[in-house]
C-alpha cells in the first residue's frame, strides 16, 4: 500500500476553485519537488497534507485511512519565512514541541520528562549543525542558521513526512547549496518522505526523485476562478537531468519563470 493516495482531490474556497482532479500515489521515502506558477495552489496542497486545510471533494489517504484533519507529529513543516520563537534560545525552540505535547496547558515539562526533551532536542540540533549555538537566540543567528533551526524544530517529533515550502528562497546561493546538502543527508538518514515547493527548476531536479508541475488545464476568461490547478506533469527524476524539451513544455503552459531557469 502506498503511503499517500489521492483520488480526484479538489480544494474550493466558495466558488474559487484552487485545486482539482489530483490523482496520485506516493511511496514512503520519495522526495517530490513541486513547481508551478505563483498562486497555482502549491502551498494550499501542502496545507492539506499538513492538516490545516480540508479537502473539498475527493479523498486523500495516509496509510489507507483519511488523512487527519489537523497537524500531527507524523508531519513536519518548514516555511520560507523562519518560523522560530524569538524569545527562546536555540535549545528552547527545539524543545518546545515535546514540552507542548507533554503539557499543553503550561508548555513546559519538568524532571525526567524535561531531561528527555532536552536530550532529544540536542540530538536534533546537532543533526542540523547547530551544536555550538544551543544558548543563542534567533536574532544572533544568520539566515541559514535560522533555517537550520526551523528544520530541527520540524524534525523534533521524528515525522515520517516533511513538508518544505520554498525553504531556501531567501538564502544566498552559497548558503542555499549547503542547505540543499543538509536536506539531502537528513532525507536519506531519517528515511523521510519529502514534499518540497521550489521556484528553481534546477534545484527541483537536483534534490527530488519525482517532479510535479502544478498548472491549470482549463481556463475561462469570463470566470477565471472557476477552474483549479492539477498535476500536469509527474516526472521521475532518475539521472538528475531534466528532459531537453521540458522548458518548452513549461513555457507552452505559461510557466515562463520556470522555463527560463538555467538548467544543469
UniProtKB/TrEMBL annotation:
This is Lauroyl acyltransferase. PROSITE patterns: ABC_TRANSPORTER_1, ABC_TRANSPORTER_2. Residues 4-241 form the ABC transporter domain. Belongs to the ABC transporter superfamily. Keywords: Acyltransferase, ATP-binding, Nucleotide-binding, Transferase, Transport. GO terms for molecular function: acyltransferase activity; ATP binding; ATP hydrolysis activity. SUPFAM superfamilies: P-loop containing nucleoside triphosphate hydrolases. Pfam families: ABC_tran (PF00005). The keyword Zinc-finger does not apply. SMART domains: AAA. It comes from the Bacteria.
Amino acid at each position: 500500500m502506498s503511503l499517500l493516495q489521492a483520488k480526484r482531490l479538489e480544494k474550493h474556497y466558495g466558488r474559487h476553485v484552487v485545486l482539482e482532479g489530483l490523482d496520485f500515489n506516493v511511496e514512503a521515502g520519495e522526495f517530490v519537488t513541486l513547481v508551478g506558477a505563483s498562486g497555482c495552489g502549491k502551498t494550499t496542497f501542502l496545507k492539506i497534507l499538513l492538516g490545516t486545510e480540508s479537502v473539498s471533494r475527493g479523498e486523500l489517504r495516509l496509510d489507507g485511512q483519511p488523512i487527519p484533519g489537523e497537524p500531527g507529529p507524523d508531519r513536519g513543516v518548514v516555511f520560507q519565512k523562519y518560523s522560530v520563537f524569538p524569545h527562546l534560545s536555540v535549545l528552547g525552540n527545539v524543545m518546545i514541541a515535546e514540552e507542548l505535547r507533554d503539557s499543553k496547558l503550561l508548555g513546559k515539562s519538568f524532571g525526567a520528562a524535561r531531561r528527555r526533551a532536552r536530550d532529544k532536542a540536542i540530538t536534533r540540533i546537532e543533526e542540523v549543525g547547530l551544536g555550538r549555538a544551543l544558548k543563542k537566540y534567533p536574532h544572533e543567528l544568520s539566515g541559514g542558521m535560522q533555517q537550520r533551526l526551523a528544520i530541527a524544530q520540524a524534525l523534533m517529533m521524528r515525522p515520517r513526512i516533511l513538508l518544505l515550502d520554498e525553504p531556501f528562497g531567501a538564502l544566498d546561493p552559497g548558503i542555499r547549496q549547503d542547505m540543499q546538502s543538509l536536506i539531502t543527508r537528513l532525507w536519506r538518514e531519517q528515511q523521510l518522505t519529502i514534499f518540497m515547493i521550489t521556484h528553481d527548476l534546477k534545484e527541483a531536479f537536483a534534490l527530488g526523485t519525482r517532479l510535479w508541475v502544478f498548472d491549470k488545464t482549463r481556463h475561462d476568461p469570463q470566470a477565471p476562478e472557476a477552474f483549479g490547478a492539477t498535476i500536469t506533469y509527474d516526472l521521475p527524476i532518475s539521472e538528475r537531468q531534466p528532459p531537453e524539451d521540458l522548458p518548452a513544455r513549461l513555457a507552452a503552459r505559461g510557466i515562463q519563470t520556470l522555463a527560463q531557469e538555467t538548467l544543469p
